[in-house]
Design a protein that fits this description.
heterodimer; A: 7-stranded mixed β-sheet; 11 strands; globular; B: about 110 residues; mainly beta; 7-stranded mixed β-sheet
Chain lengths: ~120, ~110
């Protein structure tokens, strides 16, 4: 079964760093762009970052530029989100998602929760 | 990178049709035929419904349809059913590999 499993969330203080991971199963990871999407408590979805299939290009929403980096290890079928200088407003559930050939996010993980307080 | 505008809530009775609008600008919705729609039930991950404005994701019921006119995209749910009660989000490509989601719409089945 095609699956994405996030991990690494937790409670941190403002200014600290954290790395989220997303392990993928049952598809050829190196063929797909990947994306991180977050959802603050009781709020809507926000696209955070994307990375191309070979990891050579990254794209970010303005709110996290310069603080977050996204990377991937295709040999380990894993996606990462390194978050530095965390702010209270970064508190959210973070989802990783696959950018399908459909130009839509066709597979999602279950999410991992980051609390900055 | 402003969020696309959706109505906060839409409701309908079982069997009725509802339409959710998603208004952007000439730099996102109006510029590209790359609007997708997602359904999210409480506590769950979002699920892709529609991609490239009007194409249904695999095995999606034909009760769901998408369209676009100018800077506004729309999702129509016909034959409304209890399980359609959820939040719905549009998403559009905004150029330079940037994407923007809509503000989200809560659908209530009366």
């Amino acid at each position: 079964e095609v699956q994405l499993v996030e991990s690494g969330g937790g409670l941190v203080q403002p200014g600290e760093s954290l790395r989220l991971s997303c392990e993928v199963f049952e598809f050829t990871f190196n063929l797909y762009w990947m994306t991180w999407v977050r959802q603050a408590p009781g709020k809507g979805l926000e696209w955070v970052a994307s990375i191309n299939n070979d990891g050579s290009a990254e794209y970010f929403v303005d709110a996290v530029k310069g603080r977050f980096t996204v990377s991937r290890d295709n040999a380990k079928n894993s996606l990462y989100l390194q978050m530095n200088s965390l702010k209270v407003e970064d508190t959210a559930v973070y989802f990783c998602a696959r950018f399908g050939v459909t130009n839509g996010l066709d597979v999602w993980g279950q999410g991992t929760t980051l609390t900055v307080s | 990178q402003s969020a696309l505008t959706q109505p906060a809530s839409v409701s309908g009775s079982p069997g009725q049709s509802i339409t959710i609008s998603c208004t952007g600008t000439s730099s996102d919705v109006g510029a590209y035929n790359l609007v997708s729609w997602y359904q999210q039930h409480p506590g769950k991950a979002p699920r892709l419904l529609i991609y490239e404005v009007s194409k249904r994701h695999s095995r999606l019921s034909s009760r769901f349809s998408g369209s676009k006119s100018g800077n506004t995209a729309s999702l129509t749910i016909s034959g409304l059913q209890a399980e359609d009660e959820a939040h719905y989000y549009c998403c559009s490509y905004a150029g330079s590999q940037i994407y923007v989601f809509g503000t989200g719409t809560e659908v209530t089945v009366l």
